[in-house]
Amino acid sequence: MGIRWVAGAALPLIVFTVFVHPVIADYRVPLRDGVYTETPQRCAEFRRGELDFAPYEVDKGGKQFQGPETACVVAMIKMVRPPHRYHVETTCREIDETFTQSFILDVPTRERFSLEGEDYQWCIPLATTMQKAPAAPPLRGMANKALIDYWADQNDACRGGSGDDPATDKACGRRAKAADELKKRGLCYRSVKGGQDWVRCRR
């Protein structure tokens, strides 16, 4: 952006040029949506289901940039060294805790980035990972204990997930279906020995 200032008619024209690094207005990292891993070998392991979590995921057109077990939304991004070094700030949620993260991100291409000295490359679309997610088991055929354990797992995923993550909504829906099945079997969720659990309903 150039700013021109004339001191007076008899004085020479003085031109001040102010260089401002561009700020990305809609706050998104310039990366392709998907899962990112350190190496092709790690990508293959993730595809085979041998990794519990992907190292990093980019979603919502770059608006979400998150690591394992942490849901993060890009709060600010600006270029600090052209052509591909950025200062990124994210707002993250882990279980019931909300916090911010600030880091320098190098993005030489839309499918590669470097963070804290580690290089990552695009591995697989998020849609593919969602398609490979195991289907919900048939609840009617499950024993009571297995069904209670299943409900507890979905309850943890529902309560601890990000509010704008579709996986959280799915977990809450599975939890509700499991609770309905438990109630049909005459079980109630109530306080037991200082905690809460599914027990036989009182008549």
Chart the SSEs and their pairings.
Blueprint: E1 2-5, E2 14-17, E3 34-37, H1 40-47, E4 56-59, E5 64-66, E6 71-81, E7 85-94, E8 97-109, E9 112-115, E10 118-124, H2 126-131, H3 144-160, H4 166-184, E11 187-192, E12 195-200
Task: Describe it.
This protein has helices spanning 40-47, 126-131, 144-160, 166-184, and strands at 2-5, 14-17, 34-37, 56-59, 64-66, 71-81, 85-94, 97-109, 112-115, 118-124, 187-192, 195-200. It is of the alpha+beta class and 203 residues long. It folds into two domains: 21-129, no CATH class; 134-200, no CATH class. Strands 5-4-3-10-9-8-7-6 form an eight-stranded antiparallel sheet. Strands 1-2 form a two-stranded antiparallel ribbon. The termini are far apart.
The overall average pLDDT, rounded, is 80
Order of helices and strands: EEEHEEEEEEEHHHEE
End-to-end gap? 77 Å
Query: Share of helix among residues?
Result: 10-25%
Rg from C-alpha positions?
A: 25 Å
Beta-strand percentage range: 35-45%
Q: How many domains make up the coordinates?
A: 2
Low-confidence stretches: 1-24
Main sheet specs: 8 strands, antiparallel
Structural class: alpha+beta
How many DSSP H or I helices? 4
